[in-house]
């Protein structure tokens, strides 16, 4: 019993020993101090025990650690924000540089298109002049051929008459000389016969002179024909050069247009067939050419010229189709692309958001008919324009709509003002392009048209 009581006393003394050791350790590390406070009425002191000093130092350390950690977080956040701002600034500068390059390329392509149009007009004038020269040359050649045929007929008739006159003269001479086989003439007709012989001799002499004159005229005509043939050869060579220049000019004009429609992902053949059916009247300068008035097979120049005219007709069809497809931006003022086409905030953003000052004019990028102009949930003030080939464009968040339903608009016509109506965070226009009801990236159309417009 006493032994058991001893064990209980030892168990109770164990925590006291540990506390004593801790107190001793604190006493060595933080010896007790007294802080004296003297006033006019007396002196007081505050006793700083080791435990209080440990608590004070712990509090001070925690405060310093918290200050260091908070300062670190602030510095990291500041550095991260600075990096984001710098990155945004770099991206903005890069985007502005790219826009300037695209604008310069667009201006250069516009100048090239204008130059190609001027070359085309000049070449068309040269073709007209060439056709007139060919017609004149053909008329001259036909007249010379007719003249040569008349001269040859006259020459043949004269030679025949000469031969007949010679035969008659020989017969008369035989009759005068009384040759065997010849019929003797009465004596009373000798004088008449001599007169006849003289007349025939004079006629033969005149015929010989006419023959020589006709021969000289024929030789002159042959020389003239050779000269005309040389002129015609030179004219053909000149026409060949003109045709080559026309073919090169047409090819240079057609190639960027064809690439433009294919880059936009549009069915080029179907579009051209649709335009051709809508513009099916015939006549005018693009009708097939005929360089010969005779009923003959077309000559190589006619075939070549008609091939050029067909390509010019194709160029004209491309030009008409380009007016009806939205291949340019709906803005002519500087803007900032704030949201591209694609996923955004977990949903599909089906257009381009282009920000500019409030009231910036919005223009139709192609010919079309307004099918909606009013308020639409989420879109705010919305305009929808239906174009050819199943294409529709949309312009949302406008401040003011300047068109009405059923109105026909042309490319470059003002249709509204930029605003912030509907679900919007600021002044911008939401631009959509839908093909057969399905949204597509408008930038594909804009990039396709940048080499032409």
Summarize, please.
It contains six helices and 15 strands. With 453 residues, the chain is α+β, with helices and mostly antiparallel strands.
Descriptive overview:
By secondary structure, the chain is of the alpha+beta class. The protein folds into 3 domains: 1-28; 115-180 and 191-324; 351-449, Glucose Permease (Domain IIA), CATH 2.70.70. The protein is built from 6 helices and 15 strands. It has helices spanning 2-29, 50-177, 190-263, 268-278, 300-324, 442-449, and strands at 33-38, 43-48, 336-339, 342-344, 347-349, 352-355, 361-363, 368-376, 380-386, 391-396, 398-401, 408-409, 414-418, 428-435, 438-440. α3 runs parallel beside α5 (300-324) and α3 (190-263) packs antiparallel against α6 (442-449). 16% of the residues are buried. Mean pLDDT is 78; it is low at 1-7.
């Amino acid at each position: 019993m006493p032994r058991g009581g001893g064990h209980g006393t030892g168990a109770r003394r164990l925590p006291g020993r540990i506390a004593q050791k801790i107190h001793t350790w604190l006493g060595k590390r933080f010896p007790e101090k007294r802080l004296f406070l003297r006033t006019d009425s007396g002196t007081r002191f505050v006793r700083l025990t080791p435990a209080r000093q440990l608590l004070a130092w712990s509090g001070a350390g925690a405060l310093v650690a918290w200050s260091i950690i908070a300062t670190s977080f602030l510095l990291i956040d500041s550095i991260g924000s600075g990096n984001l701002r710098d990155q945004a600034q770099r991206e903005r500068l890069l985007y502005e540089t790219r826009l300037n390059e695209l604008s310069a390329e667009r201006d250069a392509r516009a100048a090239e298109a204008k130059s190609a149009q001027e070359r085309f007009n000049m070449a068309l004038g040269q073709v007209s002049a060439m056709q007139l020269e060919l017609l004149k040359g053909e008329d001259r050649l036909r007249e010379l051929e007719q003249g040569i045929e008349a001269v040859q007929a006259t020459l043949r008739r004269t030679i025949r008459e000469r031969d007949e006159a010679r035969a008659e003269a020989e017969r008369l001479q035989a009759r005068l000389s009384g040759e065997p086989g010849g019929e003797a003439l009465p004596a009373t007709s000798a004088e008449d016969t001599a007169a006849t012989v003289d007349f025939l001799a004079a006629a033969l002499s005149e015929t010989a002179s006419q023959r020589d004159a006709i021969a000289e005229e024929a030789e002159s005509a042959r020389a003239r024909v050779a000269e005309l043939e040389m002129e015609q050869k030179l004219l053909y060579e000149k026409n060949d050069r003109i045709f080559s220049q026309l073919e090169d000019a047409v090819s240079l004009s057609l190639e960027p247009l064809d690439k433009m429609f294919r880059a936009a992902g549009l069915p080029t053949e179907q579009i051209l067939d649709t335009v051709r059916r809508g513009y099916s009247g015939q006549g005018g300068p693009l009708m097939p050419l005929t360089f010969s008035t005779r009923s003959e097979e077309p000559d190589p120049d006619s075939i070549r010229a008609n091939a050029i005219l067909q390509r010019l007709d194709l160029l004209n069809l491309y030009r008409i189709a380009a007016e009806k497809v939205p291949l340019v931006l709906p803005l002519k003022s500087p803007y900032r692309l704030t949201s591209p086409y694609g996923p955004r905030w977990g949903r599909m953003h089906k257009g381009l958001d282009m920000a500019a000052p409030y009231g910036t004019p919005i223009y139709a990028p192609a010919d079309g008919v307004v099918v909606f102009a009013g308020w639409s949930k989420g879109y705010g003030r919305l305009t929808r324009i239906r174009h050819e080939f199943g294409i529709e464009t949309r312009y949302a968040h406008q401040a003011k709509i300047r068109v009405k339903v059923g109105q026909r608009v042309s490319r470059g016509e003002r249709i509204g003002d930029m605003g912030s109506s509907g679900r919007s965070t600021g002044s911008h226009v939401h631009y959509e392009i839908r093909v057969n009801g399905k949204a597509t990236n408008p930038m594909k159309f804009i990039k396709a048209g940048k080499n032409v417009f």
